[in-house]
Amino acid sequence: MAASRNPLLRLEHIRDEIRALSAATVGVAQADFLESYVLRRTTEHAVLIISEAVRALPIELTSRSPGPPWEDIRGIGNILRHDYYAVDPRVLWNILTTHLPALAPVIDRMIGEIEDQG
């Protein structure tokens, strides 16, 4: 399978972006995040990578894990690409502090399942 379509690699990319954002924002208050151009842009870029990686995952794989809002994750990439000027930083904060921490264990479990099969 081509590396660009390898689900395990895509899941690892998602995991790595979530971990990097977590490390970069540990102890950061919402007010500081909202004022920090660098943190907001870092978050936007990581979420864009996560969205692209999810778009490349086979539907058969994501359908076995119905918890995460897969369509929303796929769709946020379009917003970040085409409507970047309208992205509310508070939405990014919510993704960073609520949605990504909830997604992380699902991604870890999916990685484990693939590794166990292989």
Primary descriptors:
118 residues, single chain, mainly alpha, 6 helices
Blueprint (SSEs and pairs):
Elements: H1 7-25, H2 30-35, H3 37-56, H4 59-62, H5 70-82, H6 89-117
Helix pairs in contact: 1-3, 1-6, 3-5, 3-6
Protein name: DUF86 domain-containing protein
Keywords: Hydrolase, Nuclease, Nucleotide-binding, Phosphoprotein, Toxin-antitoxin system
GO molecular function, one term: hydrolase activity
Q: Could you give the count of β-strands? A: 0
For the sheet with most strands, the description reads: none
Structural class: mainly alpha
- What is the overall pLDDT average? 95
Helix content: over 70%
- Helical stretch tally: 6
Helix-strand sequence: HHHHHH
**Radius of gyration, CA atoms, in whole angstroms:** 14 Å
Distance between the termini: 13 Å
Beta strand %? under 5%
Low-confidence region ranges: none
Task: Return the domain count.
Answer: 1
| Overall morphology | globular
GO molecular function: hydrolase activity; nucleotide binding; RNA nuclease activity
Pfam family, one: HepT-like
Protein name: DUF86 domain-containing protein
Keywords: Hydrolase, Nuclease, Nucleotide-binding, Phosphoprotein, Toxin-antitoxin system
Structural features, described:
- This protein is an all-alpha fold.
- The chain has one domain (7-116).
- The chain has helices spanning 7-25, 30-35, 37-56, 59-62, 70-82, 89-117.
- The longest helix has 29 residues, at 89-117.
- The protein is globular.
- The two termini are 13 Å apart.
- The relative contact order is 0.18.
- The mean pLDDT is 95.
